[in-house]
Amino acid sequence: MSKITAAITAVGAYVPEYVLTNEILETMVETNDEWITSRTGIKERRILKDPNKGTSYLAIQAAQNLISKSGIDPLEIDMVIVATATPDLPVASTAAYVATQIGATNAFSYDLQAACSSFLYGMSTASAYIASEKYKKVLLIGADKMSSIIDYTDRTTCIIFGDGAGAALFEPNEEGLGLQDEYLRSDGIGRNFLKIEAGGSLLPSSAETVANNQHYVYQDGKTVFKFAVSNMADVSELIMKRNNLANDDVSWLVAHQANKRIIDATARRMQLDDSKVLMNIQRYGNTTSATLPLLLSDFETKFKKGDNLIFAAFGGGFTWGSIYLKWAYNS
C-alpha cells in the first residue's frame, strides 16, 4: 500500500473591505509612510470595523470562499481547526461556532493557539489526523481580528497588524504529495517579550487592568525581531538540508508576513531568488494566524502540481518552525 500523506486540495481567503493606509496612520500617531515602509515593508492593512463581528466572521467568510471554489459538501468535512490568537470568546470554542455556521455539522472542531505560528502548527495537526487514516477531510482556518487587541495610540504595534482569514482543506494523498517534513520549536523565554498582560488566569480582567491598557498587545520589537530573524532562517535552512533540497529545488518560500526584513533574511539564508519569495505584507500587514493561508490564496494560480513549498513562521511564546510540503494540484 502507498503511504498516506496529507495534501492541500483547496484554499480560500477573506479580508475586510476597510483599508488602513500608512497615510491614515500618520493622522493617528506620530509616524510616517517612509518610516513604516522602510522598517516593515507594510503599506496598508485591512480592518474589520463592525464592532459586532469577531474573528469567527472572518473565518466563516474564508471557509465559505473555499467551499464555493472547491464545490465540497460541508457535510463531508470531518474536522475544523481554527488557528487564532483572537477567539471570539474566552471559553466557547470559535471553531465549533464556525463549523456550525458553514454547515460542517458532522465535524468536530477546536481552536489552536500558538500566536503567529498557529497556522503552521495547525498544518502539522491536520496532517497527523489525515495520516492516521481516521479522517478524510480536515479544514484548517487561520483567522485573526488583530484590531481588537491593538492600541491605536501605540505606534510600535498599530503600524504592524491587520485583520484577515485564510483556509486550507487537507485530504489524503497516495502520490507522495502534501506534507513531507516538519521542524517545530518553542521556547518559553519569549513570554515577556510579546504578550497581552491581562485577561488571563494570571491577571484577570478588572477596572484597573482596563484603565492601564493591559488588554492590548505589548511587543519588545528589537528582541522579537532578533529572535525571529535567527530562528526562522535556522529552521528553514535545516528543513532544506534534512530533505536534501538545494535552492534550485525550492519552488516557493511561504513565510509568515511579520516584517519584510525578516522574510528577506530567511530567503538569503536559503539562497533563494527573490522571485521565489511570496510576499503580500505590503497589502495586509501582519494578520497573525492568517498570513500563511492568505499567501496560499493570493498566489494559488502560480503553484503547479509537485512544487516544493517551504513554510516558515515565528510567533509569541516563542513559537516557530518550518514545514516542507509538495503542492498537490494545478490551479
Shape: globular
Portion in beta strands = 15-25%
Spans where pLDDT lies below 50 across 5 or more residues: none
| CA-atom Rg in angstroms | 19 Å
Secondary-structure class: alpha/beta
Largest sheet: 5 strands, mixed
Oligomer: single chain
Number of strand elements? 13
SSE topology sketch:
Elements: E1 5-14, E2 18-21, H1 22-26, H2 33-40, E3 44-47, H3 55-70, E4 79-83, H4 94-101, E5 108-112, H5 118-131, E6 138-145, H6 155-158, E7 163-173, E8 178-186, E9 194-195, H7 207-211, E10 218-219, H8 221-242, E11 252-255, H9 260-270, H10 281-284, H11 291-298, E12 308-315, E13 319-326
Parallel strand pairs: 4-5, 4-6, 11-12
Antiparallel strand pairs: 1-7, 2-3, 6-7, 8-13, 9-10, 12-13
Helix pairs in contact: 3-4, 8-9
Descriptive account of the structure:
With 331 residues, this protein is an alpha/beta fold. The protein has helices at residues 22-26, 33-40, 55-70, 94-101, 118-131, 155-158, 207-211, 221-242, 260-270, 281-284, 291-298; strands at residues 5-14, 18-21, 44-47, 79-83, 108-112, 138-145, 163-173, 178-186, 194-195, 218-219, 252-255, 308-315, 319-326. The longest helix is centred in the last third of the chain and has 22 residues, at 221-242. It is globular and about 60 Å long.
